[in-house]
């Protein structure tokens, strides 16, 4: 009943966000670092994409540039029809608030607010009234019904991350960016969070992009893109943990140690 239009399958090939020849350079002179070096990648609407690559390969930088958290040096970054480089700070803030959902490794909840207040905070700030039915759907999806009046300190890490996922989903953003969302969780809570993220894609038509180091986490995605030294080097459709490990060149090493 509350299915997102993208859940109908008609628009799956349209990119919710796209980078074209995106470059990001930090610092200058001796401290100059080319974090992204001409990356072109689209994130299909209604799909779950994982970004993988070695430490320092540019995963977080790509996510930050695509989400309007960091200015790009050259090329283009687009969310929906909006070219991010054309926006000023206030417009970027508005775009992030209205079109982007975030899930971070460290949950990033406000400790003084209840779970429900945390979930609806972005809408409160935007002075938008939450859609009650949609909120109920999300709260049910992430299994938080009995915990809405709890504060973060009264919740387990897994439950806090469920609140963060619900917060990201609440405004039905164009795209959700998740940066190592299971990095602080035990494997069971991590599997739950990944299950909710993939359910939000399959059942609610959400678009999700997730940075991860973990091949098991990446296997929840529909597609994995690999970065290396700031460049897109590979991609994998319909990944399994084994095929991801294999593509990372670690499968044999892992095989020997287990
Ligand atoms: N604010 C910054 N100032 C200067 N250099 C930066 C900054 N942020 C990132 N870098 C550099 O850009 C490169 C890419 O960093 P990034 O954090 O995107 O990599 P990553 O793939 O996400 O790494 P990790 O897996 O370790 O989180 C690295 O060499 C990093 O040192």
Automatic annotation (TrEMBL):
Stored InterPro entries: AAA+_ATPase, ABC_transporter-like_ATP-bd, ABC_transporter-like_CS, ABC_transpr_LolD-like, MacB-like_ATP-bd, P-loop_NTPase
Entry keywords, A to Z: ATP-binding, Nucleotide-binding, Transport
CC annotations in GO: membrane protein complex; plasma membrane
Keyword presence, Glycoprotein: no
Pfam families linked: ABC_tran
Residues covered by the ABC transporter domain: 20-254
Record-level Gene Ontology MF annotations: ATP binding; ATP hydrolysis activity; transmembrane transporter activity
Protein name: Putative ABC transport system ATP-binding protein
